[in-house]
Amino acid sequence: MAELLRTHPLMAWSRAFERLPEPVGITVEPFVATADVRLASVGAAASEALGVDLPTVPNTWVPTGTGRAVWLGPDEWLLSSTTETPEQLEARIRAAVLPLGGSATDVSAQRIGLRLTGARVRDVLAKGCSIDLHPRVFARGSSAQTSLGQAGVVLMALSDAGDDYVVLVRSSFAGYLADWLLDAALEFTTTHDS
């Protein structure tokens, strides 16, 4: 049986992203294994079993060594790994949380990651996102489930300066959001002759 080649849904947008000048940078993040984790009680046992302290403050994320743990709700997190396969991540997490009454589901194919960087990226995001992205409010470690240009996303701040973000968007909306971001960035990436 022939093996299917995995192609990224945003491969066609890569060149357009590469041509953007410095004030706004957009890069497609590589595929990562992700699992949705449900766990009613988070404590020392869960932290020890998972090898990470899950964020318990709403709208935050923490690094996990090889990925991230993102707070999605009072009993729900999104965990990712850059070194494990989706099957390995799901099995490892499931084994850790099942004895604690939790569950883990592989959602690796659900979302695509885009890295947004640059001095004007917050201005681009503000065109289609209603949350306050000022670094005083939305600094490194902050996350939000919100809309960006009418697409549901998970937005994470990677810096305290407001110039580095990751946007997780459902695969089926990735092309739409890529077009929207390129259009929103146009104002900040072109020079105007007087």
Describe this structure in words.
With 194 residues, the protein is α+β, with helices and mostly antiparallel strands. The protein folds into two domains: 11-30 and 110-188, Gyrase A, domain 2 (2-Layer Sandwich); 33-106, Heterotetrameric sarcosine oxidase (Alpha-Beta Plaits, 2-Layer Sandwich), CATH 3.30.70.1520. Helix content is 24%, strand content 29%. The strands form two sheets. The chain has a five-stranded antiparallel sheet with strand order 1-7-10-9-8. Strand 4 and strand 5 (76-81) form a beta hairpin. The longest helix has 16 residues, at 174-189. It starts with 13 loop residues before the first helix and ends in a 5-residue tail after the last helix. The mean pLDDT is 91.
The CATH homologous superfamily of the largest domain is named Probable tRNA modification gtpase trme, domain 1
Query: Would you count the extended β strands for me?
Result: 10
How does CATH name the architecture of the largest domain? Answer: 2-Layer Sandwich
- The unreliable regions are none
Q: Distance N terminus to C terminus?
A: 61 Å
Overall form: globular
Structural class: alpha+beta
Question: For this structure, what is the CATH class of the largest domain?
Answer: Alpha Beta
| DSSP strand content | 25-35%
Helix/strand order: HEEHEEEHEEHEEEH
Q: What fold name stands as the CATH topology of the largest domain?
A: Gyrase A, domain 2
Number of domains: 2
Strand order of the largest sheet: 1-7-10-9-8
Mean pLDDT: 91
